[in-house]
Amino acid sequence: MSEQKYKQEVSLCEALDRILNKGAVVVADVTISVADIDLVYLSLQALIASVETGQRLRNRD
What are the strands, taking DSSP E only, across the chain? Predict the structure, then answer.
């Protein structure tokens, strides 16, 4: 049997709608170094969601 791959195209509007309805967490680690000596380390975390989704998640606990 041959395996078929389906390519799903999502518009920017649909992607934004999904992110705002469900929420997304963005995590990043940034290290600034000179000559292999770490000078600055940043750990960044951000939650992206609509206000309604945030309230719904807060009341779920």
Answer: 24-34, 37-48
